[in-house]
Automatic annotation (TrEMBL):
Entry-linked PROSITE patterns: CYTC
Protein name as it appears in the record: Cytochrome c
MF (Gene Ontology): electron transfer activity; heme binding; metal ion binding
InterPro entries per record: Cyt_c-like_dom, Cyt_c-like_dom_sf, Cytochrome_c_Oxidase_Subunit
Keywords: Electron transport, Heme, Iron, Metal-binding, Signal, Transport
Keyword Metal-binding attributed: yes
Pfam family, one: Cytochrom_C
SUPFAM superfamilies: Cytochrome c
C-alpha cells in the first residue's frame, strides 16, 4: 500500500511539472474565447440562454481550476458533450491563455 501511494505521489508531481511549462497569456485569449461567450456569461455580456443551459460562471474562478476542468473535458474525465468537443479543439496553450484570461475577470469587475 505504501509503495502504491509513493507511485501515485510521483505521478502527480510529474503531471504538474509538465503543465507548468505552459504559461497562460490573457492577452492572447480574446479571439479564443469568442466561442465561449455564447454560453458562459462574462461580466459586461449576458449569457444568451441562461434558462436553457445550466452554465457555470467561469469568470473569476482560479486559472488552475479552469485549466484542470478543461483538461478533464479533453481527456473525457468530465462528460459534458459540448464542453468535451470544445476542450478537444483547444491546445494546451489555448487552455492556459483562456484560463489566465477568465481568472482575471473578477479582479477587473471588482475595481
Ligand atoms: C454550448 C455551450 C458552451 C460553450 C460554447 C462553452 N461552454 Fe463551457 N460549459 C458549458 C456547460 C453546459 C458547462 C457545465 C458542464 C458540466 O456540467 O460538466 C460548462 C462547463 C465549463 C467549465 C467548468 C466550470 C466549472 O465550474 O466546473 C469550464 C472551465 C468551461 N466550461 C470553459 C469553457 C471555455 C473556456 C469555453 C470556450 C473555449 C467554453 N466553456 C465554451 C457550456 C458551454
Amino acid at each position: 500500500m505504501k509503495k502504491l501511494l509513493a507511485v501515485l505521489a510521483l505521478a502527480a508531481c510529474a503531471g504538474s511539472a509538465s503543465a507548468a511549462d505552459v504559461v497562460g497569456n490573457p492577452k492572447a485569449a480574446p479571439n479564443k474565447i469568442e466561442m465561449c461567450i455564447g454560453c458562459h456569461g462574462i461580466p459586461g455580456y449576458k449569457a444568451s440562454f441562461p434558462e436553457v443551459y445550466q452554465v457555470p460562471m467561469i469568470g473569476g474562478q482560479s486559472a488552475k481550476y479552469i485549466e484542470s476542468a478543461l483538461h478533464a473535458y479533453k481527456k473525457g474525465d468530465r462528460k459534458h458533450p459540448s464542453m468535451r468537443g470544445i476542450a478537444a479543439s483547444l491546445s494546451d496553450q489555448d487552455i492556459a491563455d483562456v484560463a489566465a484570461y477568465y481568472s482575471q475577470q473578477n479582479a477587473q469587475t471588482r475595481k
